[in-house]
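Can anyone check this?
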Amino acid sequence: MTDETKRIEEQIREAREAFEGRPPLDKWHPDLSGDIDMRILRDGTWLFQGKPLQREAIVRLFATILRREDDGEYYLVTPVEKWRLQVEDTPLLAHGLDVSGEGRDQVLTLTLNTGESLVVGAEHPLRMDSYDSGEPRPLVGVVQGLEARLVTAAYYELAEYAVASPDDEQVLGVWSDGQFFELGQG
């Protein structure tokens, strides 16, 4: 095994473990405390009382206690409080793409605007959606009902790895972690 292969395997292992250190939001079920004057803009900017949060560490902290519930709403959750906030599009953005391997053995790793990395696969599936305008909206599942939208540059980079589906040559998609994720018609 080469040093480069070892480095890549270590990065993939770290990305898989990245979310294990997050708080156990699935075990916290406080009553709704109310609405908080916080909004996450489409470009990933977090606003509090209409002003951008200046400290990246605060945004990263809030991102770890953010979840989307079955009602489609987003909440900041602690063991004793639950605050609803507004999200224009998705609360997280995926802006970096790292690719290792080829074909069915390919592994795609995305870096989020929070600095975290995740491996596209069963735990973090990639799916295509679109805006009302028809513009593509590539999304990857993160945790707690959250999704990250791939920014345009990451989506174009991802498209470079598109291949025909093994089931239908008219469908294009990408392989990652042993799974095929459809991107659209060829």
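Reply from J.R.: I decoded it. The chain has a mean pLDDT of 90.
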